[in-house]
Amino acid sequence: MLEAKNLVYEYKDGSQRLRVLDGVSLSLQAGKSLCIVGPSGSGKSTLLYLLAGLRVPASGSVLFRGRPLEAMSSKERARLRARDFGFVFQQHFLVKHLTVMENIFVSAHKPNRDTLAYARHLVERLGLGGLEHRFPAELSGGQRQRVALARALVNRPAILFADEPTASLDPDSSANLMQLLREVRGETALIMVTHDTRLLDQFDRTVELIDGKLRQVAKRVS
Ligand SMILES: Nc1ncnc2c1ncn2[C@@H]1O[C@H](COP(=O)(O)OP(=O)(O)OP(=O)(O)O)[C@@H](O)[C@H]1O
Ligand SMILES: [Mg+2]
């Protein structure tokens, strides 16, 4: 469903160029889960931006259902992202002046009764019941992160891109979040970045990003 071929990405660092991704390839099938690990600064967030069409690679290609994202206009890419992708950023980016429920609902492309019911389900399921009318500033870091996840899932995306979504969560909330991601897996494949090695067993596949390249991490036999 999603395929990345030979992605190269560089940041400008003054007069220098910093090559963060140096020929990264991967693929993800519908309903599957992929975990990306690697040291801080290795380019995991950058890779997610490229895979989700938020940035365009210097070279290489990302194909979603066989269509190269970099060949689309930025408007087409935005439409595809809104319809088929969900994204949980490392810094959640909630809208300050909107409540929890409004933040979740604001990106719904079918703002109807079913979507509202699903938004309510996600709120309950993520342990946010009772907080619907609070503003982001009135939430804990972990609660904000869960609101961002509900917002990313409300459109039932084909792929969820999640950048360290459990970083501010306690072990129980983290397990609950992972359980929810398994429940929706039938319709939503998962690409997730994490530093929490305890979660790796729960993914179909794990890859490690080091020095701009990906390598497979063998599954632990338990
Ligand atoms: N806008 C930018 N301009 C210049 N360099 C950048 C920019 N954004 C990121 N970088 C650099 O690119 C590298 C990769 O950053 P990235 O955020 O992708 O890493 P990461 O693996 O997600 O790290 P972490 O685990 O800390 O979130 C880092 O060395 C970072 O300093
Ligand atoms: Mg990051």
Explain how this protein is built:
This protein is an alpha/beta fold. It has a single domain (2-217), classed as Rossmann fold (3-Layer(aba) Sandwich), CATH 3.40.50.300. It contains 6 helices and 10 strands. It has helices at residues 44-51, 74-84, 100-105, 113-125, 141-153, 171-183; strands spanning 2-13, 16-28, 33-37, 59-64, 67-68, 85-88, 159-163, 189-193, 205-210, 213-217. The strands form 2 sheets. It has a 6-stranded mixed sheet, sandwiched between helices. The longest helix is centred in the middle third of the chain and has 13 residues, at 113-125. The model has no long low-confidence stretch (mean pLDDT 93). Residues 44-45, 90, 163 line the site of magnesium ion (MG). Magnesium ion binds next to helix 1.
| Rg (CA only) | 17 Å
Might you state the CATH topology name?
Rossmann fold
- Tell me the count of domains: 1
Large-scale geometry: globular
Question: How do the SSEs run, as a string of H and E?
Answer: EEEHEEHEHHHEHEEE
In whole angstroms, the N-to-C terminal distance is 29 Å
Major sheet, described briefly?
A: 6 strands, mixed
CATH superfamily heading:
P-loop containing nucleotide triphosphate hydrolases
Small-molecule binders? adenosine-5'-triphosphate, magnesium ion
Task: Please bin the fraction of helical residues.
Answer: 25-40%
Any idea what the CATH architecture is? 3-Layer(aba) Sandwich
